[in-house]
Design goal:
Shape: globular
Structural class: mainly beta
Helix content: under 10%
Largest sheet: 7 strands, antiparallel
Mean pLDDT: 92
Number of helices: 4
Oligomer: single chain
Radius of gyration: 24 Å
Low-confidence stretches: 1-19, 21-38
Distance between the termini: 39 Å
């Protein structure tokens, strides 16, 4: 629902006149936090730095904040420590792009400067107001260590790069008190706001009461005065703190994205939360009633490890935004480290962001589908193809001719004889545990088969991404695994294996697998994006030109390679 021009003008006036602004000069900010100071100088040789995933030149990065598009320019803001490779001194760093692949840095958009955020600027979101004006809602920490919600606006709307932001004097707009019974240490990460059919704005804040996770709902007529609802939009017992909530509509029977305020019979709604206790994210698909401001999940759950997840590997604190240029919804996420902090300090950086993913509702309406943005394919270099062939049990094929440490590999398998599939034990309900027990070296019947990436010459090191097919009670069950158990000879790294059951019917469908390999990242998409597993790995042998890639089948039965293509990836321009 659009606001009239008069109301829109009043909104801007209320922000900049009635409530005032606190101007923050970028040059003053640089002096204040001393951006040149770093706890260590990164070494010149960096075999693990990524080439086409987003990361700053050095230091710590975590949550993506407020991704958006404004006047044809994509904006990415993210939690960043300008002083070192550990989580401290966090500011909202800011970069822009015209293609979501190559990025130009700017001065931080937000940093601690006022009583309402002097002890920290945590995550938040951008909202595109009527007529395209962006604003930021973010969490600050005040001198009493309370988490409060604040508003910042662009200083110059004619600047497509939005270099400078100002904070209104009326901050904080939402704060804990004895009256609202909000947990002052667990009240953070406002979502993108949406406009209801009644002309009132809504926003969610993550929180908890005891062990009950909450998506606290606030309403506002002018985006400045916010009133807490008597009930949360949604909650769940025994889930702990809900960080980085995200709430957005998805189209039924269409891959197109829609604005966050879209309602109607042709959309469902998605609620995603990041669980602070487990550092896992879960989402549900359900029905939103705008009259009662209640959300009821139809599919998925946040109450157990069997719920729906964007990514079953190293992926957290994600945020989506509506790309109005190409009418799609794009998902950003943080790929946190598998290396130990002392190694992060030595290499001078920690954390990267996942490849931006287009996200839409599957035709089953029971889950979401994700796929790397098409723009990433502009980095495709030399291509290698394998012909259709049978891959016999116990064999592997090396894929030569590509830069295996920096590649995009896509393969599809077809299994003709499913009758010899191993019977699925009813107790095997946790796919991650099953992937750990049945690693890539554990021979089965139909599987494991898939890709060995970042593999050393003698296979002392490799990361395996693969499938196994089991015979369930009424159908065949496909298990997708990302096995890091042999990813590195460095045993200080987290080498957890990840896995999920994939909703694909191997009787009628090929099993497709796409892996984006980028030095210390293996980001894999199964079943055309029905399941995604991101891994962070640090091999000691399989680095740069010493890395190799194989297609393998460690099962006893043959599988057919229906198609296989791999590309060397060019380096993106990220500074």
């Amino acid at each position: 629902m659009a606001i009239s021009s008069a109301c829109f003008f009043f909104f801007l006036c209320s922000l900049f006149l009635s409530h005032g602004v606190l101007e923050l000069e970028a040059s003053h900010h640089v002096d204040q936090i001393n951006l040149q100071v770093s706890s260590t100088t990164p070494p010149k040789y960096q075999p693990y730095r990524t080439s086409y995933h987003f990361q700053p030149p050095k230091n710590w990065i975590n949550d993506p904040n407020g991704p958006m598009v404004y006047r044809g320019i994509y904006h990415l803001m993210y939690q960043y420590n300008p002083k070192g490779a550990v989580s401290a001194n966090i500011v909202w760093a800011h970069s822009t792009s015209t293609d979501l692949v190559n990025w130009t840095p700017h001065d931080p958009a937000i940093y601690p400067s006022q009583p309402f955020d002097i002890n920290g600027c945590l995550s938040g979101s951008t909202t595109i107001m009527p007529r395209g004006t962006p604003v930021i809602l973010y969490t600050g920490i005040n001198p009493q260590s309370q988490q409060v919600q604040n508003l910042a606006t662009p200083k110059n709307l004619s600047d497509p790069y939005l270099i400078e932001w100002v904070k209104i004097q009326n901050n904080p707009l939402m704060a804990p008190s004895s009256l609202n019974q909000i947990n002052a240490s667990s009240f953070r990460d406002p979502t993108t706001a949406w406009l209801g059919p009644d002309g009132i704005w809504r926003v969610l804040i993550g929180s908890k009461t005891d062990r009950r996770g909450l998506a606290i709902l606030y309403r506002s007529k002018d985006f400045v005065t916010w009133i807490k609802s008597q009930h949360p939009l949604h909650s769940a017992k025994d889930t702990g703190m809900w960080e980085c909530p995200d709430f957005f509509p998805v189209m039924i029977n269409s891959k197109l994205g829609v604005d966050t305020s879209t309602l109607g019979r042709d959309v469902k709604h998605v609620l995603k939360v990041s669980l602070d206790d487990t550092k896992h994210e879960y989402y549900t698909i359900g029905t939103y009633n705008p009259d009662k401001d209640i959300y009821v999940p139809d599919h998925g759950s946040v109450e157990s490890d069997l719920g729906l997840r964007y990514d079953y590997g190293k992926f957290y604190a994600s945020k989506t935004f509506f790309d109005s240029i190409k009418n799609r919804r794009i998902l950003w996420g943080w790929l946190n480290e598998s290396s130990i902090p002392i190694d992060d300090i030595k290499k001078g950086w920690a954390g990267v962001l996942a490849i931006p993913r287009t996200i839409w509702l599957d035709k089953s309406r029971k889950q979401l589908v994700q796929w790397p943005i098409a723009e990433i394919e502009k980095l495709h270099g030399h291509q290698v193809d394998l012909p259709q062939q049978v891959l016999k049990g116990g064999l592997s094929l090396e894929i030569s001719g590509v830069t295996a440490a920096q590649a995009d590999a896509v393969i599809s398998f077809k299994v003709s004889d499913l009758g010899k599939a191993e019977v699925l034990d009813p107790s095997w309900v946790n796919p991650q545990v099953l992937c750990s027990k049945k690693s890539a070296s554990f021979k089965g019947s139909l599987g494991p088969f898939g890709l060995l990436v970042l593999a050393s010459k003698g296979l002392q090191e490799y990361t395996a991404v693969f499938y196994r097919i089991f015979k369930g009670q009424n159908k065949y069950v496909v298990l997708m695994c990302s096995d890091q158990s042999r990813s590195s000879l460095n045993n200080n790294n987290d080498k957890t294996s990840y896995g999920t059951f994939l909703d694909v019917d191997p009787v009628h469908e090929e099993l497709s697998l796409r892996s984006l390999i980028d030095h210390s990242i293996v980001e894999s998409f199964g079943g055309g994006g029905k399941a995604v597993i991101a891994a962070r790995v640090y091999p000691k042998l399989a680095i740069d030109g010493k890395a190799n890639m194989h297609v393998f089948n460690n099962g006893t039965e043959n599988v057919n390679i229906a198609s296989m293509s791999a590309w060397s990836m060019k380096k993106a321009q990220i500074s």
